[in-house]
């Protein structure tokens, strides 16, 4: 029977929190990366399905969840990707499959570009794409004293429930456990200081040219009614990634691991079992 361990490890100068679901009979290791303003919590309905057949590692990307939030860390996508890659090397896994939701998908793409030898296949769940770097007036404003209070106000303005309603198509799924699970990481003000640093460091998503150079096979799974990262982004990513295919889940929003975990698991199983895309 597989088991779960919650652990912290220092990697690349920051404390990384991860959940490890060991499975002695598994032939494949999956590394799960969540989206912006989220945590390992977003995979709570998918992990119980994945762990039956795979060794599963779910990571809190800094500065989110229970990972470190030090303002001295560089929160660029490239450096976060380097941190996860270094973590994989420290764990002595020869290669893994990486699953990334939303922002986590963009981190996964950086990982594939930086170290294709470590990543067998990529599964992108409503991955972010084609965002430019934030505009200079906002970046410069982030150096103002107490700017993190503005970040906190901006995130709190719409409220937890409204934010969740924006990422799920079936709002009947929203309950107190879900709302608290997504709220909990923001009860500590350190996250807002780190997010201020992230405004400065975030370099934008990979360009079309960079995506064209990624040779790793990728499965893209998208919600038909994704309001956060529209389906058109998934269609463009499929065109720009040389070895990729797109699956669209009907009556589904942005948070596909919450809304359709059984369907996502089925497509992951098929993708990992099949041969290399050409």
Automatic annotation (TrEMBL):
Sequence ranges assigned to domain AB hydrolase-1 in this UniProt record: 29-261
Any one GO molecular function term: catalytic activity
Cited Pfam families: Abhydrolase_1
SUPFAM superfamilies in UniProt: alpha/beta-Hydrolases
Top-rank taxon: Bacteria
PANTHER family given in the database record: ALPHA/BETA-HYDROLASES SUPERFAMILY PROTEIN (PTHR46438), LIPASE-RELATED (PTHR46438:SF11)
Protein known as: Pimeloyl-ACP methyl ester carboxylesterase
Native organism: Falsibacillus pallidus
